[in-house]
Amino acid sequence: MKTFINLIFLFLTVPSFANSIVENKITEAEDYLTVNPAQSLILLDSIYDKERFSDEQLIRWHLIRMRAAVPTNQLDKLSESLETVFQYKHHSYFKAHLTSFLSGSGIYLRKKTIFRRCEKKFRVCV
Description:
It is a single chain. It contains seven helices and no strands. It is mainly alpha-helical. Helix 1 (2-31) runs antiparallel to helix 2 (37-45), helix 1 (2-31) packs parallel to helix 3 and helix 2 packs antiparallel against helix 3. The longest helix has 30 residues, at 2-31. The chain is elongated, with a radius of gyration of 19 Å.
């Protein structure tokens, strides 16, 4: 009977333990953003089972990935994170960090020179 109770306790604590490991890695990746953004990307990529993330964890993961992708000039990762995160535009965490996402969008457009090309075409039309 005692073994059965221990097994039940183990199954109840494993998900919360796994969740705290994920939170710790995300926080560590966030801490590396200013010092070594490439290390942030490595830490974020080492997290598996993103399908099990809460919406807030997923948005936060993409926000940190996006912020690390800019100084490392990994525009593909920036673009992927922006595409994914805009699917959560009604979530409160997204709204709270809207400035960061819009800034990331502007940086992406500027680095891809899309904005300049659109502006030139607009001037030609006017």
